[in-house]
């Protein structure tokens, strides 16, 4: 019963802090409705046979958009699981946001509990659930990727603790899989969290083993390589093929405008504008100050040997906070940080670490009372931020017909598109010059087929923006493509005659190699998983015989 009560408390708190998602309808956020449109598009592309999905045909007013070539896909893969049960698109996205709260609370509890006991787990979990920036992601920004990445931070470090204790195949595979999921859930969060993950394992292996274990680090390197391999199909093309899109040349925002002033951390206003609410949470700051006081003034805290852990966490938190301020501007001009436009994204990781400091509030009766007081205060204060600006009542059909790009500035638009589409085309394929007839048109996001009966030399315009991977044939012969026009759409020059035109969206060499790396990694993962299962089965049978 004692084991169940803390989890029940966490589940109840999670419910109240995600309660608006249980109501009917939805509510406006910066990106929340786009998540629904993206889920719709993910299903379209999978139905079209795009595995993995990369190129949309429906979005961008029907002219096509390489959405999942660059946008983190895992939240929508997860969404497709719920779609198997005929759950609506809007409800599926709401479920994913709800899970982001419940699961992050549970994993934070397990992680902090392993570090410092049950009460530490409850304190850290509730502070993590009630962190103001999480509520910003839920009710202002509507960032599905960041919300779900907050589930993975404690999970990855929780598995890391087991791995440090026993660096076997089981925990190596779990590390690989969790790292891959983080990369696929939010690539920016993965980039920011990765060095922390490495430092955490090195630090805690040194604390637990009194030295850096080379065997452990070797296995860790192999786990990281496997994790990168599992996610290679996404992140390698996203990096190497970034050169084709607007994002390679245009920043989404001015870096200087998106640093956080230290005074913003304690601001009390709830801002629904274009720049999010940056408060760390004055209750969370109180928890941090209290933990510092406990370490300084409570002898038992230092005698338990927690001082090195405290100093490590304080160092990480301090570095993270400095990197949100323009003091660190020079570092944000160096790759890979230069790829990130919004330094305030670090607030997701800061929220994780500042919540974790409550593990130092469990040493005696006084510190426990202080911990319970801070947690209760956080519940009372931050429940006020669980408030959508309004509610929407839009059916799923609305999102099925939404053909926006789902990106803020059309930043994934190919560079050769000089005039982005503003309206949907009248005909998918049209005769731009000459005399010709088009019939038997069949198309989706992966292919297009149609017949052309051309009475004269003709130019046929296919209202699909060209993107590397599109190949066309006329009567089985490769045909040169012309896309040097303002819209960047494909134009085919045909002489007089009868043609069967086929266009197929194929893998580039980069995508093909990346897919193969992931495929090989999956086989290695499954092979090692099978080996672990057989080894355990053999060991169990051997123990049974001996008994």
TrEMBL record:
UniProt KW Endoplasmic reticulum keyword: no
Pfam families found in the cross-reference section: PTPS_related
Record field: transmembrane: 63-85, 92-112, 118-136, 148-165, 171-204, 216-240, 277-298, 310-332, 344-362, 369-386, 517-534
Record keywords, A-Z: Membrane, Transmembrane, Transmembrane helix
Domain of life: Bacteria
KW S-adenosyl-L-methionine (keyword) present: no
Record InterPro entries: Membrane_prot_PTPS-rel_domain (IPR018776)
Membrane protein 6-pyruvoyl-tetrahydropterin synthase-related domain segment(s): 70-393
Protein's recorded name: Membrane protein 6-pyruvoyl-tetrahydropterin synthase-related domain-containing protein
Organism of this sequence: Candidatus Gottesmanbacteria bacterium CG1_02_37_22
Lineage of the organism: Bacteria, Candidatus Gottesmaniibacteriota
């Amino acid at each position: 019963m004692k084991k169940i009560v803390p989890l029940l408390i966490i589940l109840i708190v999670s419910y109240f802090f995600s309660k608006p998602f249980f109501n009917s309808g939805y509510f406006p956020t910066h990106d929340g409705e786009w998540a629904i449109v993206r889920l719709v598009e993910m299903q379209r592309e999978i139905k079209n046979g795009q595995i993995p999905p990369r190129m949309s045909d429906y979005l961008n007013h029907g002219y096509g958009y390489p959405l999942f070539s660059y946008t983190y896909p895992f939240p929508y893969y997860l969404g497709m699981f719920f779609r198997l049960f005929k759950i609506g698109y809007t409800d599926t996205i709401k479920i994913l946001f709800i899970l982001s709260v419940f699961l992050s609370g549970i994993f934070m509890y397990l992680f902090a509990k392993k570090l410092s006991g049950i009460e530490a787990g409850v304190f850290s979990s509730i502070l993590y659930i009630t962190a103001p920036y999480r509520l910003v992601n839920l009710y202002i920004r509507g960032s599905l990727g960041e919300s779900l990445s907050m589930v993975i931070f404690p999970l990855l470090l929780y598995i890391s603790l087991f791995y440090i204790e026993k660096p076997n195949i089981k925990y190596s595979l779990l590390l690989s899989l969790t790292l891959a999921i983080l990369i696929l859930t939010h690539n920016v969060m993965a980039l920011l969290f990765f060095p922390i993950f490495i430092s955490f394992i090195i630090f805690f292996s040194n604390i637990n083993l009194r030295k850096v274990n080379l065997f452990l680090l070797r296995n860790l390197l192999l786990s990281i390589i496997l994790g990168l391999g599992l996610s290679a199909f996404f992140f390698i093309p996203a990096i190497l093929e970034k050169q084709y899109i607007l994002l390679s040349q245009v920043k989404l925002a001015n870096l200087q405008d998106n640093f956080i002033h230290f005074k913003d951390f304690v601001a009390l206003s709830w801002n629904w504008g274009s720049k999010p609410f940056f408060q760390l949470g004055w209750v969370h700051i109180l928890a941090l100050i209290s933990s510092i006081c406990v370490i300084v003034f409570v002898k038992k805290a230092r005698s338990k040997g927690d001082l090195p852990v405290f100093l490590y966490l304080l160092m990480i938190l301090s570095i993270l906070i400095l990197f949100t301020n323009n003091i660190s501007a020079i570092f944000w001009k160096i790759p890979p940080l230069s790829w990130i436009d919004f330094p305030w994204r670090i607030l997701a990781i800061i929220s994780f670490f500042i919540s974790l400091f409550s593990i130092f509030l469990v040493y005696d009766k006084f510190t426990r009372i202080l911990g319970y007081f801070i947690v209760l205060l956080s519940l009372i204060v931050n429940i006020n931020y669980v408030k959508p600006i309004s509610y929407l009542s839009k059916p799923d059909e609305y999102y099925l017909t939404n053909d926006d790009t789902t990106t803020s500035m059309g930043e994934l638009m190919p560079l050769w598109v000089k005039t982005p589409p503003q309206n949907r085309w009248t005909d998918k394929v049209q005769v731009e010059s000459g005399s010709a007839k088009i019939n038997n048109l069949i198309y989706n996001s992966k292919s297009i087929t149609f017949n052309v009966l051309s009475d004269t030399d003709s130019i046929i315009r296919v209202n699909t923006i060209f993107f590397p991977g599109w190949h066309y044939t006329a009567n089985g012969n490769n045909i040169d493509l012309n896309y040097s026009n303002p819209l960047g759409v494909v134009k085919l020059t045909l002489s007089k005659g009868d043609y069967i035109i086929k266009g197929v969206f194929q893998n580039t060499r980069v995508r093909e190699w990346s897919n193969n790396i992931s495929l090989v990694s999956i086989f290695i993962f499954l092979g090692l998983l099978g080996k672990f299962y057989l080894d355990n089965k053999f060991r169990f049978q051997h123990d049974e015989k001996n008994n």
